[in-house]
Amino acid sequence: xxxxxxxxxxxxxxxxxxxxxxxxxxxxxxxxxxxxxxxxxxxxxxxxxxxxxxxxxxxxxxxxxxxxxxxxxxxxxxxxxxxxxxxxxxxxxxxxxxxxxxxxxxxxxxxxxxxxxxxxxxxxxxxxxxxxxxxxxxxxxxxxxxxxxxxxxxxxxxxxxxx
Amino acid sequence: xxxxxxxxxxxxxxxxxxxxxxxxxxxxxxxxxxxxxxxxxxxxxxxxxxxxxxxxxxxxxxxxxxxxxxxxxxxxxxxxxxxxxxxxxxxxxxxxxxxxxxxxxxxxxxxxxxxxxxxxxxxxxxxxxxxxxxxxxxxxxxxxxxxxxxxxxxxxxxxxxxxxxxxxxxxxxxxxxxxxxxxxxxxxxxxxxxxxxxxxxxxxxxxxxxxxxxxxxxxxxxxxxxxxxxxxxxxxxxxxxxxxxxxxxxxxxxxxxxxxxxxxxxxxxxxxxxxxxxxxxxxxxxxxxxxxxxxxxxxxxxxxxxxxxxxxxxxxxxxxxxxxxxxxxxxxxxxxxxxxxxxxxxxxxxxxxxxxxxxxxxxxxxxxxxxxxxxxxxxxxxxxxxxxxxxxxxxxxxxxxxxxx
Amino acid sequence: xxxxxxxxxxxxxxxxxxxxxxxxxxxxxxxxxxxxxxxxxxxxxxxxxxxxxxxxxxxxxxxxxxxxxxxxxxxxxxxxxxxxxxxxxxxxxxxxxxxxxxxxxxxxxxxxxxxxxxxxxxxxxxxxxxxxxxxxxxxxxxxxxxxxxxxxxxxxxxxxxxxxxxxxxxxxxxxxxxxxxxxxxxxxxxxxxxxxxxxxxxxxxxxxxxxxxxxxxxxxxxxxxxxxxxxxxxxxxxxxxxxxxxxxxxxxxxxxxxxxxxxxxxxxxxxxxxxxxxxxx
Lengths: 163, 405, 281
Known about the structure:
The complex is a heterotrimer of chains A (about 160), B (about 400) and C (about 280).
Chain A: H1 2-29, H2 48-69, H3 78-84, H4 103-111, H5 117-120, H6 144-161
Helix pairs in contact in A: 2-6
Chain B: E1 6-7, H1 14-40, H2 55-70, H3 72-78, H4 89-109, H5 117-122, H6 129-152, H7 160-186, H8 199-226, E2 228-229, H9 233-263, H10 268-277, H11 280-305, H12 307-312, H13 315-343, E3 353-356, H14 370-393, E4 397-398, E5 401-402
Antiparallel strand pairs in B: 1-4, 2-5
Helix pairs in contact in B: 1-14, 2-4, 2-7, 2-8, 2-13, 2-14, 3-4, 3-7, 4-6, 4-8, 4-14, 6-7, 7-8, 8-9, 8-13, 9-11, 9-13, 10-11, 11-13
Chain C: H1 12-28, H2 34-54, H3 58-66, E1 84-89, H4 99-108, E2 124-130, E3 137-143, H5 151-155, E4 161-163, E5 169-171, H6 181-185, E6 192-193, E7 212-213, H7 219-222, H8 229-236, E8 242-246, H9 253-260, E9 263-264, E10 276-279
Parallel strand pairs in C: 1-10
Antiparallel strand pairs in C: 1-8, 2-3, 4-5, 6-7, 9-10
Helix pairs in contact in C: 1-2, 4-8
């Protein structure tokens, strides 16, 4: 009996500790969702709302198409995102992902979703990246299956958004 | 034959708690080492671009090979119908699972990207022997678990056919598993000291030896813990005989392996490296693997069977010493094979000497770093902790005769 | 390589954009269904982009100059009709010249000269080969041999090591778990493991700690119709010891030379069918 009581107390303590952990990020949530820096140009490669939800899947498709099939279309290239959405730091140069102001980090920090893209990929435009060549025209993957999957989600979004 | 009764461990000695605590600490330290290696990258290990598999792999392969061998006793009892081995079949199955878990943990924690383990579980290249092994290993867990169920479940254990079927299946599977493990090396065309079909039978023979040695040592430790003689004198004698046969089998395959290589002029240099000029690898091969791991246990065990041997020390003591020596030999064998095979340079231009900024043509330097060793030891401790906890919660051990105190 | 490289900056930006916008307008005339609404959305941004991409101006020039006949449209997958390869003339490869190595390191962002020969990545290295019997020696660059039967691809458990349809052997770092089995299997010691965390990688050559990597035959350049950096550097130095081209195209210089001269492939006996040929060794 004595032991069981202690276990309950311990469980309660753990529960409180976990609950506290959740309230920590919630504290910063009071400030509302973050507003990531605007990209260059006046439009993203797809509607912003849709990109918020689907950027990961189009990036993943693009990644597989590029690496394995050499398809290098511009619409959903990670390099395109990095070029367009570069945020300048105090020194006037684009910041890396080490800086909390980095475009990807503003939301990913907020949602506590860790991405490992930048373990390998450059997180700011390089010298060659001055011209982001996005050619928005439908969902552009040459891999038919990937393009169809992404087009479907985009079409559904546009329909629902009444655009 | 009398009914076998089994027991859970209760009434623990300080030895039991001490061992459990020791293993827990070693595991914690090992995990700390993993964190350190993952944080800094493999630069903090002794591994490099030539010796890409280091001490963790020595431990991992050793444990995985031993895991398959640990099933020996169970196989002998249900596949070869030796009832005398039956009381130890449960422990044998448990040890097989535990050693495999320990070995795989080390293997996985040494990956460059261990967080991508799910990728390894979901994306397969079926031409890779590594992929087959993922199936062989996970399958082994499942099959041995079913096998244990047929031994331990009240209903299922009444049906000998079920146990026999599971036993056969597990037996075939473990041979496939060790063939797969040996072939990880045997399939490498570019490495002169690996590329041989003999790697598979050599690893199978080695698995019998190391697995049985582990089983014997765990049994003797548990004799001390339970203060019971878990094995009869006849069983000790049988284990003694088996260990000698297995050691000789390993010796046989080792000799054939190197003789075949020595016969081909193209492999002379590589063979001379491992047998004569390889420094630590040569030392570990001759002294560790051949002398300490095979010849000494054989001599001790054979001598222990003679009258004068019996006068000198008990068969139990001889068996314990021989098992410890066999395991030391096993680690030496793995080290000289796995690391020695990589340290010897690739032969890009047969008959020519090559040199470059990438250290081509040179024997690669490798020295194990502390974190690697700690990770490897943690693997052994994971296996032993699993065994210790399992023995406490389920009846794996046979009831023996109480020692006179 | 493994990033979603955009080539529009140097080519599509100019001509590609304009022509595509034109085609889109034609489509737009057909009506205003849901799908077309989507197109319209994109068209609006497309026109914005045409000017944007054209702004640097120079890109058009670059396009006209550097695109050989073999350039493949960005949206087309690679095909097995091509087999990219290299022919290296050891007779022309100057002893002590390291230009190909330097060019590779600059292009792909790995450090050269190496500080730690045992652990640093080396995608390409100069190898000195000496005959111990008569002391004769020559030097040549050594890198991934882009085998048609690559042992690294056979052994890779996840399929991260793979061969593109056009014969280029790559590591997909997205699914590489860092097991290093490919390094055990490679007969050419062509692969390196990234032993340390990296920063400031080249945007066209992503690479990072815990993965295996090797020569990509400058796949990001090849896809643009350019030649690998090492080949370019060798020609620039005036050695012309390296040729890059399509082994499957009988009219290509590399195919003609391989058909004419006696060439060797390293460890041809292993049956890996390398795509890198050597001459005068």
